[in-house]
Design a protein that fits this description.
By secondary structure, the chain is α+β, with helices and mostly antiparallel strands. The protein folds into two domains: 7-167, no CATH class; 170-231, Winged helix-like DNA-binding domain superfamily/Winged helix DNA-binding domain (Arc Repressor Mutant, subunit A). The protein is 23% helix and 38% strand. It is built from six helices and ten strands; from the N terminus they run αβββαββαββαβααββ. Strands 1, 2, 3, 4, 5, 6 and 7 form a seven-stranded mixed sheet that branches. The chain has a three-stranded antiparallel sheet with strand order 8-10-9. A hairpin with an 8-residue loop joins strand 6 and strand 7. Helix 5 (186-193) packs across helix 6 (197-209). It is globular and about 65 Å long. 28% of the residues are buried.
């Protein structure tokens, strides 16, 4: 319904708009309906799809678009984040602080785990945009008790730090390949990425589904993986 926004949609609004503007060029079109789906940016016969959250909602959209068009999937990751807390009282000044947490290019695996095999499609390119963002929060006084407290209203683009481009899962695997032993576990992957064990598990799943590694046994209670060597 026009004018009605969920919390999730508000979370993506400003950041999504800013990234679309960065990718739009002279002669491009935005918000175009193609094959029943709304494409963010259309440049000639190429589609740029900006997605700031998980990739699960793209399970139907991307395969359809990739049948006929080259698609660049753009995903921002906050290397640095500022948290702006806005008071409900207009006379109280907002507070702004820098979050101690820092994002990594490897954070993409939490989103990519929904569609890992799609990265093998020759029409798909994944671009990870490392950014500085501002997370705008306000107190939510409505809803049930669990929904009260500070909630994120908007994400704003402050700066673009670096952009990575990947045409295959092998390109992503190359970021950790030199740090892994001949046979490796999810713990080895997490250590190579300097990340949590959970993210290491998601990366291992993506590598396996993406055709760059395979299960070759066990190391204790953990599955062991090895590279799939292409002829």
């Amino acid at each position: 319904m026009a004018g009605a926004h969920s919390i999730g949609e508000l979370n993506e609004r400003s950041l999504h708009r800013a990234l679309k503007a960065r990718y739009a060029v002279a002669g491009s079109a935005t918000e175009q309906v193609i094959d029943g789906f709304v494409a963010d940016v259309v440049i000639g016969d190429r589609i740029v799809e900006v997605h700031t959250g998980g990739f699960s909602p793209l399970k139907k959209k991307l395969p359809r678009l990739l049948q006929r068009y080259p698609v660049t999937l753009v995903h921002p990751i906050a290397q640095d984040r500022y948290i702006l807390k806005v008071a409900t009282d207009p006379d109280v000044r907002a507070t702004r602080r820098k979050s101690p947490k820092h994002g990594s290019v490897f954070d993409v695996f939490s989103a990519l785990a929904s569609i890992p095999a799609l990265l093998a499609h020759p029409n798909l390119t994944l671009e990870i945009v490392m950014i500085v963002e501002e997370d705008v929060r306000a107190v939510n006084t409505g809803g049930g008790r669990r929904r009260r407290g500070w909630v994120s209203l908007d994400r704003r683009l402050v700066d673009v730090v670096k952009t990575y481009s990947f045409a295959s899962m092998a390109d992503l695997f190359a970021l950790v390949d030199d740090e892994l032993p001949e046979q490796f576990t999810t713990r080895d992957i997490a250590t190579a990425m300097k990340s949590s064990r959970r993210l290491g598990q998601q990366a291992a799943f993506c590598f396996r589904e993406g055709g760059v590694s395979e299960i070759c046994g066990k190391s204790g209670n953990a599955l062991a993986y090895r590279r799939i060597r292409k002829p």
